[in-house]
Amino acid sequence: MTQENRAHLMAEINFLQQQLAELPQSAKLTRMSTAARLKEVETQLAQLPLESAEPARVRLTFNGRPVIGTYGIFADFGMKAVNSFSDAVITLAASLLTPLAATGRIPNREDYQLLITNTALGSFGFELEEYHNNFSLLEEPNLVGFALEQTQMILHATLSGSDEELADSASEIDPRALDKIRSFLQIVADNEAVCAMQYKNQSVKFSDVGQIKRCLERLSQDNLQETEESLSGEFQGVLPKSRTFEFKLKGQDDEIIKGKIGKTFQDAASLNLHLNEETQIKVMKTRVGKGKPRYVLLEYLGKSLI
Hints:
By secondary structure, the chain is an alpha+beta fold. About 40% of the residues lie in helices and about 30% in strands. The protein contains seven helices and twelve strands. A five-stranded antiparallel beta sheet has the order 4-5-1-6-7, covered by helices on one side. A five-stranded mixed β-barrel has the order 8-9-10-12-11. Strands 2-3 form a two-stranded antiparallel ribbon. A hairpin with a 2-residue loop joins strand 4 (about 115-120) and strand 5. It is globular. The protein starts with a helix and ends with a strand.
């Protein structure tokens, strides 16, 4: 939980620093408010205890047409698949600190690299390890570890979860990172292979190519739809530590939706100052198939003018 708190605080610091750099010198009050919030968050981060840490490690194994028992794997497939998996983890890790543009360079990509440290048997594959210069003290959140957890989570939800469970998992993941996970599974399916991922004490294993293809269908943009929407209504409650909210929609028979607060949202606690007042918000709405949608709060737009 400390690492998760650390990641949230660092994401907010990154957001506030960017906002401060973009504000004109003439916006004195806004700059003072932003600078005060930045100092407050930096103090909260400094007060979190340091934790012992080791590099995140994952086993990625394959079976099927490109795999020759436990003896070897076709090099062109093995390198392509591992590179695609690594690309997904790097993209996801980077997105934990800042929202990613749809295209272009991944910021600080070199900070989230994985090392191939050994081969892994049980079919054939690789042991991968997070690269870092020093793991004696955790001075930064283990973003690669978080990224591996979320990759495992989305693969598990895609394989055996309900539409609602998959929507929950997908709503936590940056769209660009989600597309990288699709690309990894597509490479595996195109080569008539299957894969298994083991991280910590949990594993996700695909038993046949048909499962991979069905998972790709569930992850397709036709089935898994993500849209940004502006909503009018009233906040009913906000829990800053768990970063969740309830919002009563205007003109929808007083329907109340529940959602999560985006990781880079500035000062989640301040939303409690706007309870029960008519307001507008921007959310990311994630729906899988005909399942119930999930919401992530992206932006507070202010008091409704309607």
